[in-house]
Amino acid sequence: MENYMNSLEQPPVKPIRPTFLTVLCILTFVGSGWTIFSGLSTYLTADTTANVVQAAMQDAQDEISKGNSDAGSRMAEKMLSGVSDVLKPENLKKSALFSIISSIFTLVGAILMFQLKKPGFWLYVLGVIIAIIAPMVIFGANNLVSMMSTMGAAVIGIIFVILYAMNLKHLK
Predict the structure, then answer these.
(1) Cβ count near 172 (within 10 Å)
(2) pLDDT for 64-108, tens place per residue?
(3) CA distance 38 to 76
(4) Helices within 15-143 (DSSP H only)
(5) Is residue 107 classed exposed, middle or buried when 0-12, 13-18 and 19+ CB atoms within 10 A define those classes?
(6) Residues in CB range of 114: below 8 A, 6 or more apart
(7) pTM, whole model, 2 decimals?
(8) Phi/psi of residue 9, nearest 5 degrees
(9) What distance in Å separates the CA atoms of residue 52 and residue 58, rounded to the nearest whole number?
(10) CA 169: distance to chain centroid?
(11) Distance of alpha carbon 150 from alpha carbon 148, whole angstroms
């Protein structure tokens, strides 16, 4: 009789990961992996990139100042000077490091959520917060490039946080 009762016991059922969560995690694996690779590349080539771009920016500024000094020219000069501040080697390296750190958090978070572990969600949120705040810290809050970087990271990051939050009920 005891053997019969033991044979009726089922092995523990492993929770099934929803397809939507799987797709989100795969998108995060690809995006975070690419951003880590891109950040490493940017960090390693920051000096060369900055020199090439600075020379091109100087040529563009010279062309603008040769023309008339209307409001459009002054606006273009202001934008070019803001971009040239961003493209300093030390700023490129800082930006790349924060990008790598942010992407590591989002990647580890996605791996944990892929395994249906709830702490992964919070790691992912931390990575998104870092991605949103870092450009303002590095470049200043009044810089056009930092505002655009922040907006891009915020829109994509918040959309993914909301989509992952819709799957919190499946995470343990």
Answers:
(1) 8
(2) 667 666 666 666 666 666 666 677 889 899 999 999 999 999 999
(3) 28
(4) 19-44, 46-66, 71-86, 89-114, 119-139
(5) buried
(6) 17, 21, 22, 25, 120
(7) 0.80
(8) -70, 135
(9) 10
(10) 25
(11) 5
